[in-house]
Design brief:
The chain is mainly alpha-helical. It has helices at residues 3-16, 26-39, 45-66, 76-83, 86-103, 114-124, 128-137, 148-158; strands at 111-113, 145-147. The radius of gyration is 15 Å and the shape is globular.
Length: 177
């Protein structure tokens, strides 16, 4: 696993630990879902249902694959190798990428405007300076938009253990506040 991938996964773990108790549990995914849905107020019910289902699948997959002792929580040590295993976690990430990127396109034109992108990524918990750097790395058009397909692919790349120098690395870069 590349160092960049490990940093990306550790950041995701810390963000998904929405209640801050040091482990992932179903309540974390409920909190995260609520925050993301609040940021996506303009999205239609189908897109909202899809992100709810994606967050639910994310948690269910983790709990099924990793919670061998049945205690209802996932530690960082349990999370790290699994999430970076495309064969085991790839379909879950693909569903999540599809749902989140579609949520950023409430008018269905295939384009995501920066303000909504920033709102959604802030709801997840990423730092605003890093969010803007990520958006810029995606190569927005002259009207400051990226395509749904670019964001979808970027989410999938974020979880790839063998990739470095990708736009998603902007999310783990140290930036002055």
């Amino acid at each position: 696993m590349r160092d960049e991938a490990a940093k990306r996964v550790e950041l995701v773990f810390s963000l998904f630990d929405a209640n801050g108790n040091g482990v992932l549990d179903s309540g974390d995914f409920d909190l995260m879902t609520g925050r993301v849905l609040e940021a996506a107020a303009a999205s239609d019910d189908g897109a909202k249902d899809a992100i709810r289902a994606a967050f639910r699948r994310y948690w269910t997959t983790l709990a099924t694959e990793l919670d061998a002792n049945g205690d209802g929580v996932i530690t960082l040590d349990e999370f790290r190798p699994f999430v970076l295993d495309p064969e085991r976690f790839g379909p879950t990430i693909a569903e999540f990428a599809e749902a989140l990127s579609a949520l950023g396109d409430p008018d269905g034109d295939g384009l995501i405007e920066r303000p909504l992108f920033v709102s959604l990524m802030t709801a997840i918990g990423f730092e605003e300076a890093n969010i803007h750097a990520l958006f810029d790395a995606f190569g927005p058009d002259s009207e400051d938009r990226i395509t749904v397909a670019v964001w979808n692919a970027g989410i999938k790349d974020y979880y790839a253990p063998d990739l470095a120098g990708i736009p998603g690395d902007q999310l783990v870069a140290d930036r002055a506040a």
